[in-house]
Amino acid sequence: MTPRRPARPTNRLSRRQFFLRSSALGVAGLSLPAWLTACGGDDDDASSDTGGAPATTAAGTSPATTPAGAGEGSLFFENWPAYIDPTEDGATGTVDRFTAATGIAMRYTEAYNDNTSYFATIQPVLGRGDTIEPDIIAPTSWMAGRLINLGWVDPLPLDQIPNAANLRPDLQMPAWDPTGEFSLPWQTGFAGIAYNLDVTGRELTSVEDLFDPEFAGKIGMNTEMRDTIGLILLGLGVDITTIATFDDAAAAFDKLEAAKSDGQIRSFHGNDYFDDLSTGNFAACVGWSGDVAQLQLDNPAVRFAFPEEGVTSWADTMVMPKGAANRDAAAAWMNFVYDPVEAAQITAWVQYVSPVDGVREELEKIDPDLANNPLVFPDEATLAKAKGFANLSDEVEAEFDAAFSRIVGA
Fold first, then answer.
1. Domains 15-188+315-376 and 190-313+390-408 share a fold
2. pLDDT digits over 158-178, tens only?
3. CB neighbours of 213 closer than 8 A, spacing ≥ 6?
4. Which residue in 146, 359, 378, 399 could disulfide with 354, CB within 3.0 to 4.6 Å?
């Protein structure tokens, strides 16, 4: 078998890890540039390690010059950090394979650092009817829904993307894009219960396990509101796909606040749950399937439970901002990465759940162990229990954020 790629160095962040750290620290008042400096962020320098082009600090703030090679034969994709296989160690990454296969010059940057801050940057540009530089960006599903509702993204040229037919059935016509014409997911994942079997002494199967007095003071709750509140709501039997008002979710906020007051919760965490979970400071916490897949390589006691009541699901999804200049090139890219052969190469590196049907069969050829990992390839019963949080109006979103911040202490 082909050897599995080495784990990323510990000072390099996955897309999901980067988002959680920057979100949590942003709430605490630290600027993202200051955090990057404090954490040795120069490991990811201003150039994308996949395409070699200078990365913008945020969409719309890069120099107002036309990228080299602009026109029908060029493409600009702004994505999250460390979210694609690079050209390194003798392997050719997706960006370079795409350019070799199509002749399209590609500018790939990793400046999509956070949904909220990125939105704040593009809002004045798209809001006045102007265009931003990237032809494709990858907002998380709830933000994609917001952009779609605002009319700030163009319909995809699906007639030029025949491989879109490979989209997983459970992701077709999603809540954030009910007609399925504006987005194609880049990668997906789940939030459930991450736990340390050495501490719990038993397998965990229910959201209620997070509230078991046996684990008082050893539970972590995540600072990603949709996943923490979403899981609690699922545990209460609430369909999170239909949430429309704060009252619909009030019981989950009350349960979370009570758990904090009673000392059930050790702390609220972002990406920093890895050490606490591995060392046993946490018996269990709200975690992500992709993270646990990595942690298990070093500590088999770390487990991930898809609770019987269901899991929250998320997707980072490709959209074309309004007025994108290179529609044909964008279609060629989406068609390329939705080829199961190419999508398998991405999965082998990022180890998130691919949105592309047929990837598992291709991955069997290059990494059979990973192809049989249920955290990367959950079964149909698990997928059926996965729920995406409903799109919220701006007013309701603000209510949720205020209530959650008050409990978390941000």
1. yes
2. 999 999 999 999 899 998 999
3. 264
4. 359
